[in-house]
Design goal:
Helix 1 (2-17) runs parallel beside helix 3 (52-68) and helix 2 runs antiparallel to helix 3. By secondary structure, this protein is of the alpha+beta class. A 5-stranded mixed beta sheet has the order 1-2-3-5-4, covered by helices on one side. It has helices at residues 2-17, 22-39, 52-68, 71-91, 99-181, 187-214, 218-221, 231-240, 258-278, 318-329; strands at residues 245-250, 284-291, 294-301, 333-338, 344-351. The protein is built from 10 helices and 5 strands.
């Protein structure tokens, strides 16, 4: 009795093992089933060779395997259980008065296990279909979001082309044609128009690159981007616009990552643009120092000395947010704030190498 109890416990325990090790559970269950069948062979208590407890354990195991491990291993386990029962009968033929007694037991036990296994397969298929539908829905949502992003980028590109690029083209055309339309202007004024035309051309080149990027043009993504070598020209154009700018670059900057150089250029560009817009009559200074593994970029300006008629109602702020995003994107830090004398200071620290942003602290 104790041996039979232990064997039935092993059969029941294999159901729990099936949740983690389905093949091991199937092997343990078939082995336990064979041992139980042969150990109970001397008795004549029906039903045999598959006791009721073994039928319940086998049906539960087949159902778990069909739902969690797939129908193949469930079907294999079912076939092995039926074969083990037939083997037990074949090894003790003298214990049976008729074929119907033991064949009925095998058919009933195997049939119940097959029905439970079929239910497990159906549940597993339902779960699989629901999972596939969920993944398909997620993929559809991702594709929709991507399509909406592409459409929004195309809309922004159209707006930039129709408004900003057109306006810059008009500025460039007027500045280029001014020396021919106004022939009596002196050389200083002529140089001023040349500077305006050069700045407009540069803006149009960058605008074309931006439009190409927004529209997904591969050629635009590999177009040359401003580097630190372009900063002196940027400073010259700002000085020509009426803001004296002092530039000092210390250290070797040619080995700095091109993306970091672009960020440094944009920080200087946005800072000087802010001086032009918000501090008329001020002077500015740009100090760039490359030392160790860090690039320090500092831009300061004095307070405004006059109220220019060109001053706009734009209170700013978006440019600083954009600078912060660019600097953070390469692992750098940005500080900005007003000075005691009424001026303003922007200080950025950038890493030389994007693969080692820890250099910027």
């Amino acid at each position: 009795m104790s041996l039979s109890f232990l064997m039935n416990g092993a059969l029941a325990g294999s159901v729990l093992v099936a949740l983690f090790r389905p093949r091991m559970a199937a092997a343990v269950h078939i082995g336990g089933l064979l041992a139980l069948e042969f150990s109970s062979a001397p008795g004549f208590a029906a039903p045999w060779p598959i006791p009721v407890t073994a039928m319940i354990s086998l049906s539960t195991l087949i159902g778990v395997l069909a739902f969690d491990a797939g129908w193949r291993i469930a079907a294999t386990t079912w076939a092995a259980a039926i074969a083990s029962s037939a083997l037990a009968v074949a090894c003790t033929p003298h214990r049976w008065d008729s074929v119907s007694s033991w064949s009925t037991t095998i058919v009933v036990g195997g049939g119940v296990a097959a029905l439970v296994g079929a239910a497990g397969v159906a549940l597993e298929q339902r779960r699989s279909i629901r999972s596939e539908l969920s993944l398909a829905k997620h993929d559809a949502e991702v594709q929709l979001a991507r399509r909406q992003a592409v459409e929004e980028r195309a809309r922004i590109a159209r707006e930039l082309h129709d408004v900003v690029a057109h306006s810059m083209s008009v500025v460039h055309m007027q500045a280029e044609s001014a020396p021919f339309r106004l022939r009596e202007m002196d050389e200083d004024v002529r140089g001023e128009f040349d500077s305006i035309a050069s700045t407009a051309r540069s803006a149009l080149r960058e605008m074309r690159q931006l439009l190409g990027t927004l529209r997904g043009d591969d050629d635009a993504s590999i177009a040359p981007q401003p580097q630190m070598s372009s900063i002196p020209m940027l400073v010259d154009s700002t000085s020509a616009a009426g803001i004296p700018v002092a530039l000092a670059i210390n250290g070797e900057t040619s080995e700095i990552d091109p993306v970091v150089q672009l960020v440094a250029y944009r920080v200087v560009q946005e800072s000087l643009s802010n001086v032009l817009r918000h501090a008329p009559g001020a002077s500015a200074s740009v100090h760039i120092t490359a030392a160790g593994s860090k690039l320090a970029v500092e831009i300061t300006n004095t307070s405004a000395t006059s109220l220019s008629r060109h001053q706009t109602s734009d209170k700013g702020g978006r440019g600083l947010v954009g600078m912060q995003e660019r600097v953070s994107g390469v692992g750098g830090t940005l500080e900005h704030g007003a000075l005691l004398d009424g001026g303003f200071r922007i200080f950025a620290v950038l890493p030389f190498d994007l693969l080692n942003p820890g250099g910027a602290t």
